[in-house]
Amino acid sequence: MLRTAAIAASVAVVALVGGVWYATTGPSGGDRFAQCRAGAVAGGSDQIGGPFTLVNAAGETVTDADVITEPSLVYFGYTFCPDVCPFDVARNADAVDVLAERGYSATPVFISVDPERDTPEAVGQFADLMHDKMIGLTGSPEQVKAASQAYRTYYNKQDGDPDYYLVDHSTFTYLVLPEEGFVDYFRREETPEQMADRVACFIEAS
Could you tell me which cysteines form disulfide bridges (predicted)? Predict the structure, then answer.
């Protein structure tokens, strides 16, 4: 697809560290989504996700209830990211388009981990460039940190030029359902079609 093909292949910035480790275990009893999962979260999926309060592209304060109104692909990154974020976010946008072609509606969500540079206008422009349904979110450093901690993500601002610094960050995409919260995650190597297959499975099972 054009968005993904237009962006050069990238290398991972950093693996997810501390707090969350993913195991590749089989389905467990009593889980109606078991057939949809590719893996399991150590400690259970309820260890990831939860309420957040952030700021949207219009400068409005919003909560997770305002944002997660349908199946959503949530990604933590930053607009100045030179390689990984554009590739991953474009892949997520492509997955949303594949789902739409199959009759399913989903929303891509981009949460900045660089509140110093990522203003509401910046995340809005980035989201609009990637997909017309994408929601871009930022916030105060405290709001961003709280959202990141809720999803057990990692980010760390590198030392260097105060205007052109990089931010190391984890690169998982999270599938979040309105009534369920976090239900699954996707690694960087998964294709839009593979993501769409699993998202559709969760939608059908919910």
Answer: 81-85
